[in-house]
Amino acid sequence: MTMTTKPFARTALLAGALMMTALPAAAQVAAKVEISAKSNGERITVAVPTSLMTSDDGMEKLYTALQRKAEKSCKVTIPMRIGSSVTVGRCTRKLMNGFVADLDHSGMAALHAQRS
Question: 38 - beta bridge partners?
Answer without folding.
Answer: 43
